[in-house]
Amino acid sequence: MTATTQTLTNISGWGNYPTQDAQVITPLSLSAYQTQLAQHPSIIARGMGRSYGDSANAPIVLQTTYCDHFIAFDKATGLLTVEAGVLLRDILKITVKQGWFLPVTPGTSFVTVGGAIASDVHGKNHHIAGTFGQHVVSITMLLGTGEVVTTSPTELPDLFHATCGGMGLTGVILSATIQLIPIQSAFIAQKTIKADCIEAACEAFETNSSGTYSVAWIDCLATGKHLGRSVLMLGEHAESGRLDLTVKDPITVPIHTPAALLNSMTMRAFNNAYWVKASGDKTQTVPLLPYFYPLDAIGGWNKLYGKAGFLQYQFVLPKVDGVANMRNILTQIAQSGQGSFLAVLKQFGQANQNLLSFPIEGYTLALDFKMSQSTIDLLHRLDDMVAGMGGRVYLTKDAVMLEVSFKTMYSNWEQFEAVRQKYGAIEKFASAQSKRLGLA
Amino acid sequence: MKKILIIGATSAIAEHCARIWAGRGDALYLVARNEERLKTIAADLKVRGAAETDTYWTDLNYMDHHAALLDAAEAAMGGIDTVLIAHGTLSNQNACEECVEETLAEIKTNALSTISLLTLIANRFESKESGTIAVISSVAGDRGRASNYVYGSAKAMITAFTSGMRQRLHKSNVTVITIKPGFIDTPMTAAFKKGLLWAKPTKVADKIVRAIDAKKNEVYVPAFWWAVMVIIKTVPVAVFKKLML
Fold first, then answer.
1. Tell me: the pLDDT tens digits for A145-172?
2. Is A198 within the bounds of a domain?
3. Interchain contact A8–B (C-beta under 8 A)
């Protein structure tokens, strides 16, 4: 038995919207991937289903999570080769105690390496380290033709730059080699700074841009002169402390809670409490996992938004006029009355060469909204504003963007399609998202 | 460092047990039928910290190869402390009902091949007066049910066989553990609709490794299956035969 076929399963991204009945196939080996690829006209690879929208939804999905094997790890150089289904969490369990950490990590450790590459994820150190793909030494992947190739910044570079951030649309990532970074401790020295408006927050990012990690919680319900008040959290790898990682299993949200529990009153109370509780200019030492992945402690936190699900929205605005533009968008959101429970602000460093990679130099804001028609309408209005400002929306979180917005924001889309054409990916690899966005 | 022989090393349960042992730095000898996956798993366990990983590629239905397999494992690791027998197939009950050969093939894989291995291992461990033998049976072996009695009766044979072997080897300081998993969410059971009774292989492996550490006799994993099976075994035959289970 090398692959198993499931009857139809209702799948969705982490936002629980939209959902789709799909045949979920779990290959157990390379030959099983090849067989499945040959049998089906169109598929998409799916890892942990942690992208928020429909980028891993399709009638037939190849779930990679059983191909979760380590292939090689060099303790002396920090060079790690793993199958695409390995979770970032599993990597940390093995490498931290040997003094190596992920060069870039998103806000959850429950993502696969394949997913991290396909989304070209970024972290709190984007301004100095760039995206995950910038630390990928090479990728082995299965093309639509059935051929297995290795791609890197120097080997088939066009394929490499289309695959990092390519949302799985260039082929199936089978394995990858990543350069880890050395650490002396499994702890982070964290410093907190309070900024009482958006201008002060962006200035604080600028002042602290030489620091390794920076991110801000932002109160997007605050209005007037407190619009965009934020709590910045800066971090550096501690130089002393043990190298052991304390890994706790998450407590699980067992059921979908009524979405009404997250209303404007509870959100306002939460955001006020968060602002009051934060104390400025305080430094403390915290373990790696709660620092990078606070929400990983609550398994299934997405169910707190109820059965209808939620929409994540993350955009980036170019640095020029970025602060003023951000104020405009925050005003629009505050006026809509559709609060976001948690909102995160971050300054991005320079963009990379990957064709569909999200980050460009400027300011990014991530929000989540309860799913409703008025939320969709709001996001479409925001898409127009963001596109008009020369910004873009993160495909990993998108579930509702229109084709025209996508093609305006991601001007490299035609080049991306040309690479897909060259490597036999057209039609063979497609998701609900790629169809919505008008990719072939 | 323990020297552990894992038979059926590509099964999800065995693989997750092996990951725990690798993390402890144990030496592992892996036996399975799919060479491609066997090599992948061996390399993985090495990175996860196993002192050494050796592999043996065989179809366990060839029982005349079993002695050679055990010799090779002993030679590679310099002895064997613990054996986990985890190979098997989930029988297609309907196909078995249609075909005698199919039924006997399932009995051969899930019962006879294990009994062949157990007989050889028991004698080796008895003579050195040490060792732990853990065998994956199933809750399906506790009472035959219409939906899977071919698989269930093979597992019933394993349960009865290991029960007797445990008594025999007790005086020789050899531990025999019968493991009875319930519904586990693995590639073998991918076609089933999952409900509350289903457990993840990582959790099950964790409990199996702990049962082996504690030298338990018989364990249900997860533990609630003990209560479920007490109830199922208590139903009078006259009633049981009318149930759809």
1. 999 999 999 999 999 999 999 999 999 9
2. yes
3. no
Q: Tell me which chain B residues have a C-beta less than 8 angstroms from the C-beta of A28.
A: 37, 187
A230 in any annotated domain: yes
ipTM of the complex: 0.91
**Residue A70: its chain B contacts at CB < 8 A?**
43-44, 47-48
Side chain identity, residue A152: S
Tell me which residue in B12, B48, B188 faces A70 most closely, judged by beta carbons.
Answer: B48
Instruction: Evaluate whether A148 touches A84 at the Cβ level (below 8 Å).
Output: no
Task: Give how far the C-alpha of residue B50 lies from the chain's centroid of Cα atoms, to the nearest Å.
Answer: 21
What does the angle CA A302 – CA A308 – CA A310 come to, to the nearest 5 degrees? 50
Chain A CB contacts of B34 under 8 Å are: 2, 29
Contacts of A199 (CB under 8 A, 6+ apart): A228, A323, A327
d(CA B175, CA B125): 10
Q: B-side interface with A, Cβ within 8 Å? A: 12, 34, 36-37, 40-41, 43-44, 47-49, 89, 187-188, 190-191, 193
In three-state secondary structure terms, B179 is strand
* A250-to-A110, A247, A254, A301 alpha-carbon distances in Å: 11, 9, 12, 10
Show Cβ contacts of residue A110 under 8 Å, excluding neighbours closer than 6 positions. Answer: A48, A50, A87, A88, A89, A296
pLDDT the model gives residue B196: 76
Contact A4 B190 (CB under 8 A): yes
Name every chain A residue with its beta carbon within 8 A of the beta carbon of B53. Answer: none
- pLDDT value at position A3? 52
* Domain count of the fold of chain A: 1
Please check whether residue A94 touches B, CB under 8 A.
yes
Residue in chain B nearest A27 by alpha carbon: B187
Alpha-carbon distance of A211 to A230, in angstroms, equals 18
Domain extent for A212: 187-401
Q: What pLDDT, in 10s, does the model give residues B88-142?
A: 998 899 999 999 999 999 999 999 999 999 999 999 999 999 999 999 999 999 9
How is domain B3-240 classified at the CATH fold level? Rossmann fold (3.40.50)
Inter-chain touch B41–A69, beta carbons under 8 Å:
yes
d(CA B154, CA B144): 10
CATH of the domain at A374: 3.40.462.10
The H-assigned helical ranges of A12-73 are: 30-39
Of A5, A6, A72, the CB nearest to B47: A72
- DSSP letter assigned to residue B241: T
Q: What pLDDT was estimated at residue A334? A: 84
